[in-house]
Amino acid sequence: MVRAPRRSDSRLSEDANRPGVPLSRLGRDGPSLTRVGFGAWAIGGPWRYGWGRVDDDSSVAAIRHAIDSGVNWIDTAPAYGLGHSEEIVAKAIEPWNPGENVYVFTKCGQRFTEAKGGDVQRDLRPESIRYECEQSLKRLDVERIDLYQFHWPDNRTGTPVEESWATMASLADEGKVRWIGVSNLDMDLLQRCHAVRRVDALQPPLNLLDTEAAQGLIPWCRENEVGVIAYSPMASGLLTGAYDRCRIEQLPDEDWRRESEDFQEPKLSRNLELIERLRPIAEAAGMSLPTLAVNWVLSFPGVTGAIVGARTPDQVDGWLPALSASLSEGRLREINSYLGT
């Protein structure tokens, strides 16, 4: 593939370092990241775990709006739309230099094949990791992936995680990827990987409805200088306050959230009650509910950044203040009193 010339200016670097937009280093040796990054799951469009139909032009506009506003990293994966998300990311970042103006993160281990109708299967065999890496490089139209991550543990092929992680280390040594990380791994698998070669980053779920990662994984990462980029800080949109029972009932059939426990009883009532308690706190803090939800995640020591999704520029505007906002200790205590933490 012939790569189109990219703009050589450093506008993003200047924006990301302007006053009011703090940066955090990813782990011991990683890049300096804005506190929020663009999550490209939803822009993948319809698939088994998709968010319904999307408009690709709006997706491109959303990503570019985020970058123009100072966000300096994007997180995607091959499984998001069976390759479609990576292709849209590639289109969106055409004006910039990946790895310089904007960092691009993607994953492996959720292997899909057209021959099987797009089914996704967990596969972290060394040969599969290498194949997926090459395909992602092509779809993203980049020479090197900035952060390459396991998407989920391999519970199907019987491959020891040490063999899988050694392959990731080799990809880094070969210059195909810059940093290597894991997502959705438990403590045992994380430590086994780290014993083979340093894990640069962990990507766990963390939000006001799911605090499990904060109990052990994140403190361990902080102690061992492993970066943490938390996903689903807004609980797949639920913590934005934009969803009531009526809107949830009207979610498209192809939206995976229709099957999510958080969007169904008995959890739904408790979740909606919490959201109503959070509204006056957000108002008193002078921030939106999405910003409050994201900043609560960012308040944890050891969390480098949070992945926040959007399908339109307007949705980006809903969480952009989280780039530089913060919650006071008093408001954090009030929020945590509702969580029992």
Please provide a written account of the structure.
There is one protein chain. The strands form three sheets. The protein has an eight-stranded parallel barrel, surrounded by six helices. A two-stranded antiparallel sheet has the order 1-2. It has helices spanning 11-16, 56-68, 84-92, 126-140, 161-173, 187-196, 217-223, 245-249, 267-285, 289-298, 313-319, 329-339, and strands at 23-25, 32-34, 36-39, 73-75, 103-108, 110-112, 120-122, 145-150, 177-183, 201-203, 227-230, 305-309. The longest helix is centred in the C-terminal third of the chain and has 19 residues, at 267-285. It is built from twelve helices and twelve strands. Mean pLDDT is 90; it is low at 1-19. Helices cover 37% and strands 15% of the residues. It is α/β, with parallel strands linked by helices. The chain has a domain at 32-237 and 294-322: NADP-dependent oxidoreductase domain (TIM Barrel, Alpha-Beta Barrel).
Task: Give the arrangement of secondary structure elements.
Layout: H1 11-16, E1 23-25, E2 32-34, E3 36-39, H2 56-68, E4 73-75, H3 84-92, E5 103-108, E6 110-112, E7 120-122, H4 126-140, E8 145-150, H5 161-173, E9 177-183, H6 187-196, E10 201-203, H7 217-223, E11 227-230, H8 245-249, H9 267-285, H10 289-298, E12 305-309, H11 313-319, H12 329-339
Parallel strand pairs: 3-4, 3-12, 4-5, 5-8, 8-9, 9-10, 10-11, 11-12
Antiparallel strand pairs: 1-2, 6-7
Helix pairs in contact: 2-3, 2-11, 5-6, 9-12
